[in-house]
Design a protein that fits this description.
Structural class: alpha+beta
Number of helices: 19
Length: 913
């Protein structure tokens, strides 16, 4: 694929318009008007009809029979974009109730596309004696004359809820193949011209579980509260594929992700537009014999809340799957899969064969079947389950190497293939870890977006931030030496000013476009520099972009941690210097970049980590200064209903810092508002690509190679949003939902890393290109989220028993044993005790837990030349009081227990006081 510079330029110009706004209000744009003022054909002038079910009120346009409103009966919340109905009334705009088909008669070679939305005419109303039918229509009038089938649509009551049904009949004497059948899912996700308060009150996000007959779409309000609309298959209408409706004229952009459709059949696309991409499910078609009829449809069910989705699915006779520790499965982890359905499992198969081993091992008290799942082959894998009632369910896994190997491979790739050393670099970028293009296997030294190759902003700092944070998880002496050179030669005095009025300020970019000030030939003629993103030297030197500061603070902080807790890893500066500079960077952000500093920053939790270490080191004056500055920001957020603004009209990356400081300063109500908003765009579903995937859909424009508006698969928002979710879980260890969401997001950071260690900015979700993006881009912030969250969890679930995340656990003679599998092996949470065990240095091999008396025996890995001691913290999470004591270890001035390490594992015991 080639980089789409023209499309990127258009998107960049559009984004420039939005960059002048504060981000707290979504300003008007042309996105609301009908394209080219096309005439209205939907027929809204002809009026509407109202229909009712016990749970949902339905409003239809008389002429088209499509949805004008879909409201809950209790709260009267409308899930559809009814406020934009007039502007979406022309041909080509999709509405709920439309259908798309791709057909081919027997003997024909070419598929023909048909859509009820393309050239609208009033549909023919049908009369029926069925009292459950609310509205029925023959759709022939709104389809071309050559449409070969009879197509009827029925809106009807199905029990206490609503259903949409289509009946297709082949009245010809020739078999007709349905190669594609899609039902557009049109809900109110367009936040253009909405304030944040309005958007969180009025709008929704929707996430798919592309799981065949067990698939569903969950439609949640942006505030994460109240009912969730579930779209379910009616009878045999599997969720086979999820196609973006790119032909809908509603302009897509940073305020509108676009619409998709539920595809029941997709073979005609898979064989053509999608043929280069492996699909989530096996594509199918349906051959309709002469005289044969075929019925498909969807049901609309309300769940009381986000955490009630699976319970609601079970109540409506749908299969439910719960994977532990999720669906991104390292090869050394003993996975578990719990399945519940009213019908028994008939068969289970895996595609590709042998990628996973799935074995039934147990039945729980409430009839969940437990399967042991082990990962065998790297890459995507699908578990296909067939039930005796005929339903088929697919569960998509991603098999990865053991976490420690993924992290090691990534660190090696960054410090070899992405390591840039060139004493003659005109822009002062050497030495550094720089953006990499995996498609062509070379470093990105030029790009029309200055930051991509300029070592700053998320898209340019991502590579070196990834490399630095890797050392926090898994320090490597040679890599640390390289990165200390980077920090002291390129970051300090380059990316970050080391003197003058801008001292501690962070540049927007080291790279810039100013051809008159550099030798001829510096810039390639093949790159289009005629764009706002090709910053001048003056623009690149600006320090006003607050989002650049957390990356730099994180680099200083990691060097502090390595210098303070290990012997001989850091050599050029003292640990005090690095910690002080982390603090100075945080203060410079609020002083030199105050405008954007009013918003939550991606990786903003680094400032809290710096503050905690300042306190532990007794650096009270600096700690007080930093805490005071951060409280001003947090107090401002506490005054807002939804404090999630940024340079973008809506964002999913400031919530991390807003939540963490809100909890720290006791603004607990605001922390919960923030958490609920996160859960609205960060689902848990049995599919690795969407489980824990925090919504992001515009950063391929700014940090990717292939530039388009598209739901991103595990962009950095996944692991960043996992920080508050897992923090909240440790405060509420009975909330299993939080652990599943947060852990899925954290592991999302590792999911796209290639076998040789390259980390792309994200993976693509369009069915035409289900693969990694080409460049590393802004991956680094996501790795930050992984690094500070890499932990193991032990819980006792009421139904599923003892479960572990980031470890393999077993129970024997009343003791629960954990073998740690996380890459860091330095943090463990034992939920029944709310025991939070963390190491500043050293690593945990295993531990055993006695639930009767709370005793924990911890075995540490042996030491090495730079880790002669382990520093251990033991605490009740979220409490100032500690109900534990550690035997045989002494505590130091920083509150850490010290364990001398030698060439054998060391064991110590934690007991309740």
């Amino acid at each position: 694929m080639k980089q789409m510079n023209g499309q990127m330029l258009k998107a960049a110009i559009a984004s420039l318009i939005f960059l002048i706004f504060t981000g707290s209000v979504c300003k008007p744009s042309q996105a609301q008007g009908r394209v080219n003022d096309a005439p209205a054909t939907l027929g809204i002038d002809g009026g509407f009809t109202d229909h009712h079910t016990p749970t949902i009120n339905l409003k239809l346009v008389k002429a088209s029979g499509t949805v004008a409103g879909l409201e809950t009966t209790e709260s009267n919340f409308d899930y559809t974009p009814s406020d934009r109905l007039e502007n979406r009334a022309a041909n080509g705009y999709y509405h709920l109730g439309d259908v798309n088909l791709r057909l081919k008669k027997d003997g024909e070679n070419e598929w023909k596309d048909y859509s009820t939305a393309r050239e609208r005419q009033p549909v023919e109303v049908l009369n029926t004696d069925n009292e459950n039918v609310l509205s029925a229509a023959n759709l022939a009038n709104t389809l071309p004359d050559d449409f070969p089938l009879e197509l009827e649509r029925f809106w009807q009551k199905e029990g206490d809820h609503l259903a949409l049904k289509f009946a297709l009949t082949n009245n010809t004497d020739t078999p007709i193949e349905i190669g594609a059948l899609g039902i557009p899912l049109i809900f109110n996700n367009n936040i253009d011209r909405k304030s944040l308060d309005e958007a969180h009150t009025e709008n929704v996000f929707f996430d798919p579980y592309i799981g065949g007959d067990a698939g569903y779409l969950q439609v949640a309000r942006l505030n994460g509260e109240d009912e969730v609309l579930l779209v379910l298959p009616w009878k045999k209408s599997p969720f086979e594929a999820y196609r973006p409706l790119l032909d809908d004229p509603t302009r897509r952009g940073i305020t509108f992700e676009g619409f998709h459709e539920w595809m029941i059949h997709s073979k005609a696309y898979a064989d053509n537009e999608w043929k280069e991409s492996e699909q989530w499910n096996e594509p199918t078609s349906k051959i309709l014999a002469p005289g044969e009829s075929y019925e498909v449809g969807l049901e609309f069910v309300l769940a009381p809340g986000i955490r009630s989705i699976e319970e609601t699915l079970l109540q409506h006779q749908r299969p439910v799957a719960v994977g532990v520790p999720g669906y991104i499965l390292p090869m050394d982890v003993d996975g578990k899969l719990f399945i519940k359905h009213h019908s028994e499992v008939k068969s289970i198969s895996v595609e590709p064969s042998g990628a996973l081993k799935v074995r039934a091992v147990n039945t729980t008290p409430n009839a969940w079947t437990e399967y042991a799942v082990s990962a065998k082959k790297w890459g995507r894998a699908r578990v296909d389950i067939e039930y005796t009632d005929g339903k088929k369910q697919s569960i998509n896994y991603k098999v990865i190497k053991p976490e420690s190997e993924v992290v090691a491979d990534n660190g090696n790739f960054l410090t070899t293939e992405q390591w840039y050393e060139n004493d003659d670099d005109l822009f002062g970028r050497s030495p550094s870890v720089i953006t990499y293009d995996y498609d062509v296997k070379r470093k990105v030294l030029e790009d029309s977006r200055a930051w991509i190759c300029g070592l700053s902003d998320e898209g340019g700092a991502g590579a070196w931030l990834n490399a630095v944070m890797k050392q926090f998880v898994q320090p490597n002496p040679d890599q640390v030496e390289q990165l200390e050179r980077f920090v002291n030669n390129t970051l300090w005095g380059g990316i970050q000013y080391s003197e003058g009025e801008n001292k501690y300020g962070v540049r927007k970019s080291m790279f810039y476009y100013e051809p008159d000030s550099v030798p001829a030939g510096t810039y390639s003629d093949s790159i289009n520099y005629n764009t706002w993103a090709a910053w001048s030297k003056k623009d690149a030197e600006s320090v006003v972009r607050s989002y650049n500061y957390p990356h730099v603070a994180a680099a200083h902080w990691v060097m502090y941690r390595l210098g303070r807790n290990y012997n001989g890893l850091v050599k050029q500066r003292s640990w005090q210097w690095y910690l002080e500079h982390a603090c100075h960077t945080a203060m410079a952000m609020v002083e030199q970049a105050p405008h954007y500093a009013q918003f939550g920053q991606m990786e903003g939790s680094i400032f809290l980590l710096v503050l905690n270490d300042l306190k532990a080191e007794g650096m009270d004056e600096m700690a007080k200064q930093l805490e005071t500055a951060m409280k001003v920001r947090a107090s401002h957020w506490a005054s807002l209903n939804y404090p999630f603004g940024s340079e973008m009209p809506w964002d999913s990356t400031g919530q991390e810092e807003v939540y963490m400081w809100s909890r720290y300063f006791g603004f607990d109500q605001k922390a919960l508002v923030t958490l609920n908003a996160i859960l609205a765009y960060m689902p848990t579903v049995p599919h690795w690509a969407y489980n824990g995937n925090a919504r992001r859909y515009w950063d391929f424009l700014y940090g990717g190679k292939y530039s388009r508006i598209e739901r991103m698969i595990h962009h950095y928002g996944s692991a960043l949003n996992a920080i508050p979710v897992l923090h909240e879980y440790k405060l509420q260890p009975d909330d299993f939902y939080l652990l599943r969401v947060g852990y899925g997001g954290m592991m999302g950071a590792l999911s796209n890393i290639t076998q040789d260690g390259f980390a792309p900015c994200a993976s693509h979700s369009f069915p035409s290109s289900l693969w990694n993006d080409g460049i590393s881009g802004d991956y680094g912030p996501g790795y930050f989220g992984y690094a500070v969250n890499s932990s193991s969890y032990l819980i006792k679930h009421d139904e599923f028993g003892w479960l572990s995340f980031g470890a393999n656990s077993s129970e024997k003679k009343g003791l629960v044993r954990m073998e740690i599998t996380s890459a860091s092996k330095s943090r463990v949470f034992i939920a029944p005790e709310k025991l939070w065990l963390t190491l500043d240095a050293g690593s945990i091999r295993s531990l055993s837990y006695n639930p009767q008396n709370g005793e924990v025996q911890v075995t540490l890995e042996k030491g090495n030349s730079f880790t002669p001691k382990a520093f251990v913290h033991v605490e009740n999470f979220g409490s100032d009081a500690t109900n534990f004591e550690v035997k045989n270890l002494t505590i130091n001035e920083r509150g850490a227990y010290e364990a001398e390490l030698d060439d054998k594992p060391v064991t110590f015991t934690i007991t309740r006081k």
